[in-house]
Design brief:
Shape: globular
Number of strands: 8
Largest sheet: 8 strands, mixed
Oligomer: single chain
CATH architecture of the largest domain: 3-Layer(aba) Sandwich
Helix content: 25-40%
Low-confidence stretches: 1-25
Order of helices and strands: HEHEHEHEHEHEHEEH
Radius of gyration: 23 Å
Length: 266
């Protein structure tokens, strides 16, 4: 009888140790509101290996940084991530008529760097665009690719509402805050924008490093680098800390070399 008790207890202890040693047993979902750059350049690349390694499952709400901050303020997500600086993010929200929380209510940190790319339909035959040419194209003042050394094809702007951070950064740095032309083909997300660019002769839109491939033309443009910033409220949740730890550690091997890390928390 004593032997039976010892064996039973040993089996129970061994089972418990196996459970505790398996991160998937305590798998946790972490919901994050994200913009296009963070989604394509960081989270899509690390979410599967991170879940296998840590048991943390990312649930991405792909609404862009504007909607992400609203969701964070309403406690619908644990963090908001977008491809623009914290001051520019707050300014964008105010311009949209939204009043964010006090800046001291938030913690923000850079989790990477993003590069804005311009992608065009392959029939445009354009290889290089200057700042002035880009401004003319996206404000609607330049309407045919032949005006910038390309094919004799009308320009069609594809605009994704779900990449508000990218749109804002491009408007500030390239368009000198002038508005985009209203003659646009609307898209929802960055992949949707790319699909429309591929399918539409003369089309052009804003994209990211991860979405540039042989199906589109990516003309040489001025370097458009911007931070990818995460915002949280109050104390940073434990599972968000684990996500950050993975991005800055093992996750680096899955990221493009142009997506660099910054450990600053403000």
């Amino acid at each position: 009888m004593p032997v039976t008790r010892i064996v039973t207890r040993s089996v129970c202890i061994l089972g418990l140790l196996m459970i505790l040693g398996n991160p998937l047993v305590f798998a946790a979902e972490v919901k994050i509101g994200v913009g296009g750059s963070a989604t394509e350049d960081i989270f899509y690349k690390i979410m599967e290996p991170m879940e296998k390694s840590t048991g943390i499952k990312l649930v991405l709400v792909l609404d862009g940084p504007s909607a992400a901050l609203r969701s964070l303020d309403n406690d619908l997500v644990s963090a908001a991530v977008g491809g623009l600086s914290f001051p520019d993010w707050m300014t964008m929200m105010v311009k949209e008529g939204y009043t964010p929380n006090k800046p001291t209510d938030y913690k923000y940190q850079e989790i990477g760097r993003g590069f804005i790319k311009v992608i065009a339909n392959k029939n445009t035959l354009v290889k290089k665009l200057s700042k002035d040419q880009l401004k003319g194209i996206f404000t609607g003042k330049i309407t045919n690719w032949k005006e910038v050394g390309g094919a004799d094809t009308p320009i069609k702007i594809v605009y994704a509402k779900g990449t508000s951070g990218t749109n804002t950064e491009f408007m500030n740095k390239i368009m000198d805050t002038e508005p985009y032309t209203k003659n646009i083909l609307e898209a929802s997300t960055a992949p949707d924008l790319k699909a429309k660019v591929v399918a539409t002769p003369g089309a052009v839109g804003l994209s990211f490093v991860s979405l540039v491939d042989e199906t589109v033309t990516a003309p040489e443009i001025p370097v458009l680098e911007r931070p990818i910033v995460m915002i949280t409220k109050g104390d940073i949740p434990y599972n968000i800390l684990k996500v950050l730890e993975y991005i800055r550690g093992d996750g680096q091997k899955f990221l493009n070399k142009d997506v660099v890390k910054d450990n600053t928390v403000r």
